[in-house]
Amino acid sequence: MLCPHCHNEIQVYRNPVPTVDIIIEINDAIVLIKRKNPPHGWALPGGFVDYGEPYEAAALREAKEETGLVVENLQQFRTYSDPKRDPRQHTASTVFIAQADRLPTAGDDAAEAAIFTEENLPQLVFDHARIVTDYFAFKKGKS
After folding, report:
1. Which residues contact 102 (CB under 8 A, 6 or more apart)?
2. What is the 3-state secondary structure (H, E, C) of 25-73?
3. Residues catalogued as catalytic
4. Which domains does the chain have, with CATH numbers?
5. Bridge-based pairing state of the strands 17-26 and 91-99
6. Arithmetic mean of pLDDT, 7-21
7. Does residue 143 carry a pLDDT above 70?
8. Which residues contact 116 (CB under 8 A, 6 or more apart)?
9. Could you give the CA distance from residue 29 to residue 40 in angstroms, rounded to a whole number?
């Protein structure tokens, strides 16, 4: 690509877009949201990291915006970066685990927010089924 001003070659980079997802534990269950926007379906609370925002702050913000919960004991879990994890674009998500002590309420781009156990999980969008499977294996000490 050429610079329109000096006509020198410009290096163009396409990088994954950073996102966060958060596994919010309430007793032996986790919080999921039903998305208002495509792709529709159940998902972990999360979203895009704002420019200049630490990932931990993004996770706390998204938890509050989408579930109304102020979470505690935020811990980084894993990063998921498969280019096909989000059908809209290549994202790389850092996943966090935290706890809350009350029930969620839907907010922001969440149509619903509810708690689920490993035994009653709905079908999940993105790669969230893999994340949740990894999480429950981790909790059992198998990962």
Report:
1. 26, 69
2. EECCEEEEEEECCCCCEEECCEEECCCCCCHHHHHHHHHHHHHCCCCEE
3. 112
4. 17-139 (3.90.79.10)
5. parallel
6. 86
7. no
8. 29, 30, 32, 122
9. 22
pLDDT band at 142 (very low <50, low <70, confident <90, very high): confident
Per residue in 40-87, pLDDT tens?
A: 999 999 999 999 999 999 999 999 999 999 999 999 999 999 999 999
How far CA 137 is from CA of 47, 74, 76, 83, 133, in Å, comes to: 24, 19, 16, 23, 6
87 preceded by cis ω (within 30°)? no
Q: Cα-atom radius of gyration of the chain, to the nearest Å?
A: 17
Which residues are bridge partners to 112 per DSSP? 34
